[in-house]
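step: validate -> pass
step: tokenize input -> pass
step: predict -> running
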Amino acid sequence: MDQEYLKKFAQHLKKIRKEKNIKQDDFLDVNGISRSTIAMVETAKTDITLSKLKIIADVLGVNPKELFDFD
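step: predict -> pass
step: emit ->
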């Protein structure tokens, strides 16, 4: 697992979520994603599957590729 990449992704995901004014609780039980899952992703403590990534993008109202648009 590339921890540095996960940290960058985590920061970007959190930034998008806050810009959209979406709380971690808004992910509660959405197709198997819990608040704790989002919290762990946003702190780079876990990796996620592609299917969960798609769900996160849908909840945020963005295209999944936007989640990877960071430097």
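step: describe -> Helices lie at 3-19, 35-42, 50-60.
step: cleanup -> pass
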